[in-house]
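Protein data:
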Amino acid sequence: MNRLWIEPERKLRWLRITISVNAIIAFALSWRLWVSSRLFPLIPISDLLSSIPFPLDYVLFFALLGILLAIIAINNPSKIVLTFVILTGLLTLWDQMRLQPWVYQYLFMLAAIGLFGRKESAADKREMALNSCRFVLIATYVWSGAQKLNINFARKIWPDLAGPALSHLPHAVRTLPPITALVLPMLEIGIGVGLMTRRFRNLSVVLAILMHIIILSMLVVSRENMVVWPWNIAMIGFNLILFWRDRETGPGSFFVVRSWFQGAVLISFGVLPALSFFGLWDSYLSCALYSGNTDEGVVYVSSPVIGQLPAALRPYIWQIDQPFFLDINRWAYGELNVPVYPEPRVYRRAAEEICVYARDSLDVQLRIYQRPNPLTGARKSEYLNCTQLGGIPRD
């Protein structure tokens, strides 16, 4: 039984099966994300890419599911794996909302398996595939922790996420200063660093598994972001497959570049996330989910405008008191079952869709809350109405 976790060929086999099973579940949960027939607008990488029409959009979606099933069933599916990576990658060009963090991670890991994990590949090639996947996980933990090192995570994100669970803890724990929540991202960084070392690798795996169980439990209790439930389960599997009882892989192995793809992994997961802190790289490509370190957006609307919107959008509009506003993130959750891709260009495109329904009414105004100051949590805002190409910066 122990050989199952030692032999590179078997590790790669279990890795692709784990990714594929969890991807099928996530795709099924977020199926509207992958079709064109929906209210939330498609956000292509270029306006030259026209919408994929019905029924071709559904054909492509079911083709993805079929390919994933083939990856599970076939013994040596390298070409099929790469077909899935290419097709899914192309579909993200037609809609940037599809670049969810789990999609981004799965694509790189499957690409490593498809390129280097063939059954007939030499042992060093298979090890290249495994080390690429290991680095993806290590970098994910380190950058995810780094993104959460801000006061907004401590004051807002963690209490909102953990609220139901925290209510059962002793009063002394519940009344700890919010700043103490920053121990959690430090632990996450520690897990990533520990996975690189032989000495602390097994301990880091145990801590990672406990962390994902706790996160999954909180998400299930709150019924929040259901599409990442299987991702947390997959991460437990990845840790066991890639790191548990691995005494052979040294820290330097993760930074050896022997192919263009390994270089791409190191840059994409190791270097580019640092640019997100300066607004030069996307948040969701930098492990910023649930970090509190992303842009946010709402669309202010008047009562007459609400009456012009499709009935399916009204549950996502705050109407208890003024100002009335459409929460774009809740719209994405409600219709697509994924969080909004938190970039200004996405918020603008969503607001443009509201402007179409409202016939470019002056009663529609997009407000983009820029990333918060990590020390104070203060955000600057940008306002845009239907006739503006740029916004008016305000404090």
